Amino acid sequence: MTTSETVLARLEAGVLHLTLNRPDKLNSFNEEMHLALRAQIQRAHDDEAVRAVLLTGAGRGFCAGQDLGDRDPRKGGPAPDLGNTLETFYNPTLRLIRQLEKPVICAVNGVAAGAGANIAFACDIVLAAKSAKFIQAFAKIGLIPDAGGSWSLARILGEPRAKALALTAEPLMAERAADWGLIWKAVEDSDLMTEATKLAESLAAGPTLGLGLTKRLIQAAATNSLDEQLDMERDLQQQAGRSADYAEGVIAFLEKRAARFTGK
Ligand code: T3D
Fold first, then answer.
1. 202 C-alpha vs ligand 1 centroid, how far in Å?
2. How far is ligand 1, taken at its centre, from the CA of residue 28, in Å?
3. What is the dihedral of CA 33, 36, 37, 40, to 10 degrees?
4. What is the pLDDT of residues 103-120, one digit of tens each?
5. Which mutation among 22, 26, 135, 150 tests ligand 1's pocket best, with the greatest number of atoms within 8 A of CB?
């Protein structure tokens, strides 16, 4: 696995805490940070001890998207192939986050711009500090929203708001993002990490298999018909109903005690 100081990783109480760590560049992505983040999300797939992921940023920002210092045209040479960099670096990580059948919580501690905002929107539950803002910065440099942003903004917000945010690159403050349903909630800055950690730990102690199937179902609803979704619910409920955590959940209810889920 690629380990790097650009992404700090710590496994505690079933939660893989990941911190983007290039604070002097507002945690913008260089190749090393891309590979390190991807390796950690892959670890979350592979390691049974990981039952939830909590992603945040070091310093005053969450993530300012691509490190534009690595794209400086003044350095000469041909224009970069950005299609290739998306395919090589951003898209695999986005897919890994969406495919991970464990909860991914994002604690947006400060500004989230460009791909930084859109990586947050790809996570399952997003909390943001009230002072944080989301910026579709692409329009300011002649690019299009990437890292899944054109998909998530249009689906979550609808065309009018998605287009306005993407075409103007106006900052969207955390509280309004929550009001618009783009994130779960905005919390006091001083409470962000306590609240996000509490949530992540409670999810990590939950019925991981069932939570993972739930994530799969809700994501599938975006493209499924009702009939397809009903069939999928039937099949996944059948699987959930055979899990040890389902049996434990029912017994715990009948015995009037807290369930002790193993994630299986
Ligand atoms: O290229 C590809 O592979 C295609 C994929 C593209 C994906 C993308 O994300 S494209 C969009 C790239 N991101 C941006 O355009 C955002 C650029 N940053 C900003 O607009 C502003 O920094 C913010 C609005 C995010 C925050 O503003 P502010 O005033 O709070 O902070 P600041 O002073 O601008 O930034 C602080 C430092 O971070 C500063 O460095 P310095 O002067 O103190 O040495 C600044 O240069 C650096 N920084 C911020 N963002 C980036 C960055 N350095 C490199 N790349 C950045 N994206």
1. 34
2. 7
3. -170
4. 999 999 999 999 999 999
5. 26
